[in-house]
Structures are given as C-alpha cells and as structure tokens.
From TrEMBL:
GO BP term (any one): purine ribonucleoside salvage
Membrane spanning residue stretches: none
Record EC number: 2.4.2.1
Family membership: Belongs to the PNP/MTAP phosphorylase family.
Organism in which the protein naturally occurs: Seriola lalandi dorsalis
Pathway(s) of this molecule: Purine metabolism; purine nucleoside salvage
CDD domains, per the entry: PNP-EcPNPII_like
Signal as UniProt keyword: yes
Keyword Metal-binding part of the UniProt annotation: no
Function: Catalyzes the phosphorolytic breakdown of the N-glycosidic bond in the beta-(deoxy)ribonucleoside molecules, with the formation of the corresponding free purine bases and pentose-1-phosphate. Preferentially acts on 6-oxopurine nucleosides including inosine and guanosine. The purine nucleoside phosphorylases catalyze the phosphorolytic breakdown of the N-glycosidic bond in the beta-(deoxy)ribonucleoside molecules, with the formation of the corresponding free purine bases and pentose-1-phosphate.
Gene Ontology MF: a single term: purine-nucleoside phosphorylase activity
Protein name listed in UniProt: Purine nucleoside phosphorylase
Name of the top EC class for this enzyme: transferase
C-alpha cells in the first residue's frame, strides 16, 4: 500500500514529455468517464497515447480514450487527460495519481478534475453539474490512501491540510460562469464521495452515504485531488450527475455504465463551454494573484 514510483520515475516521465513537446501547460484537465471531448476545444493539439509514455498506466475502461492531449485554450497552455485511472482497474493509488505529479513537475499550477457520478442528494437531477465543494475519502478511511508510505518532501509535507482542497475562488468563478452561460438551473455545489467500485451502490450503502453528508458518489477523483493538494496545486472539480442513486427499495431503475456515458454526450456542449471559460479565467486569476 505504499508508493511504487520513485522520484526518478516521475522525473524520467516528465523529462521524456518535456523533450517530446514544446507545450508548457499551466492548467491540467482530467476528463472523467465519457468526457474526453472536453479536449476538443483546444488549439495546436499534440496527442500522446498513454501506452507510448514511459511509466504511464493505460486506460482499460470504456469511455476513457487513453490519450494525453497538449494544446491551448485562448492562449492558456493546457494538458488534458482523456481518461483517468481507478482502483477497480487494479491500479495502485500511486499509479492512479502518477500523472498529477508529472503535471506538477512540468509546471502546471491548476488542476481541473471532472467526473461522472451518481446523485445521492434527492434534489439532484440527471444532467446536473455539481461543483465539488468537498469530498469524503471512503477508501482512505480503510487505509487505501495515495499518501501512505514514506513521504517525499520534494512533493509536499507529511500531514497536508485537506480542509480547503477545492479552491474557494475557483468555485466562485465557476458559479459565475454558470450563471453567465444561463446554466444556473442545473449547476449545484456539493460533497463528492469516493467508493472503490466497481459495483454500483446497494440501496443500504446509498442510504448510508446520504446520512454521511454525501451529495454524489463516484469511483475516482479523490486520490488525484489529494495528491494535487499535497503538492500545492490549485484544484477545481466538476461532477456530472449521470444517474440518480436509488435510495428506495420500490424503485425499479437500474444504473449501468452505458447510461453514464450517454449523459456525458448529452451535456457535452455546455460542459465544454464551462471548462474552456473556466480555464481562461483561471489563468487570468492566477496572473492577478501573483
Ligand atoms: O469517475 P469517472 O471515471 O468519471 O466515472 C464514473 O463512472 C464509472 C461508472 O460508470 C466509474 O468509473 C465512475 O467513477
Ligand atoms: O451511481 C454511481 N455510483 C458510483 N459511481 C458512479 N459513477 C457514475 N454513477 C455512479
């Protein structure tokens, strides 16, 4: 359960990428299930397949293309992960979070994470976009935590604070953009809970998550955000509610991965607009605050 990657591994991959591309990204975007199209708006794209990048894990899940896309959004240099990694694929959390430290070493300052999740909050509707305010690291409670093992001070401190993992400023910016785009009706804020998966929740589990204060549930994101916060990246997270999690034994609907991917397509255009505007504002914000 401790990190399987050495500083030299991270360095090797970083140097390989820096030698292969002249892009120097400031913002990294992790595209969740079915959301790889978020990279489509980038200009001057340069694409690497994960399998060609030394030490990089490969995507094994449908809806995750497995490509690292460098490009620019309105002059902001960015890198997009079309597909991310999960515990349920059999990867260690060190591998799941490997790209985040590569981004840090490449000079990225802001991480924008996206995912698909199930709505726990009874008010949430399918197609809502939830700005992540906070998270619950359920696997972390059981010792499945990406920062377990010897701490490498070159990345961050032993006991990082997580009470402000999701930038308050960027959450405000995202809310403002949502209202400018006329999306306020379906933009929410809430608490995301990570479970390991791969099965979707039982009704008893879903009820427990509601009592715990979760608004949505998914099988990703928390490890990457934890590692990003540990190494000093600013984080903003968007979760697309792709299904309502059943809290009631009388409900007959059954969630499946195809439905999750389908809702991603349905919200593609607005999510892309939100993400591209957010990226350009992130950069302006960062210029103003430095
Ligand atoms: O979190 P992402 O990968 O976006 O996707 C969510 O959707 C998949 C299940 O349909 C799981 O991977 C879950 O975590
Ligand atoms: O209902 C869900 N549960 C867990 N992960 C998910 N990812 C999308 N929907 C869900």
């Amino acid at each position: 359960n401790s990190c399987c990657c050495s500083f030299e591994d991270y360095k090797l991959t970083t140097e390989w990428l820096l030698n292969q591309t002249s892009h120097r990204p400031k913002v990294a975007v992790i595209c969740g299930s079915g959301l790889g199209l978020l990279a489509d708006g980038a200009a001057n794209k340069q694409i690497f397949r994960y399998q060609d990048i030394p030490n990089f894990p490969v995507s094994t899940v449908q809806g995750h293309e497995g490509c690292l896309v460098f490009g620019t959004i309105e002059d902001t240099p960015c890198v997009f992960m079309q597909g991310h990694f999960h515990l349920y694929e059999g990867y260690s959390l060190c591998k799941v979070t490997f790209p985040v430290r590569i981004f840090k070493l490449m000079g990225v300052e802001t991480l924008l994470v996206t995912n698909a999740s199930g709505g726990i909050c009874p008010d949430f509707k399918v197609g809502d976009i939830m700005i992540i305010k906070d998270h619950i690291n359920l696997p972390g409670f059981a010792g499945q935590h990406p920062l377990c093992g010897p701490n490498d001070e070159r990345f961050g401190i032993r006991f990082p604070c997580m009470s402000d993992a999701y930038s308050k400023d960027l959450r405000r910016v995202a809310l403002d953009i949502g209202s400018e785009l006329g999306c306020s009706d379906f933009i929410r804020e809430g608490v995301y809970c990570m479970v390991s998966g791969p099965n979707f929740e039982t009704i008893a589990e879903a009820r427990m998550l509601l009592i715990l204060g979760c608004d949505s549930v998914g099988m990703s994101t928390v490890p990457e955000v934890t590692v990003a916060k540990h190494c000093g990246l600013r984080v903003i997270g968007l979760s697309l509610i792709t299904n309502k999690v059943s809290l009631d034994y009388s409900r007959e609907e059954k969630v499946n991965h195809d439905e999750v991917l389908e809702i991603g397509k349905m919200r593609a255009e607005v999510l892309q607009k939100l993400v591209t505007t957010l990226i350009s504002r992130c950069q302006q914000q960062s210029i103003n605050t430095h």
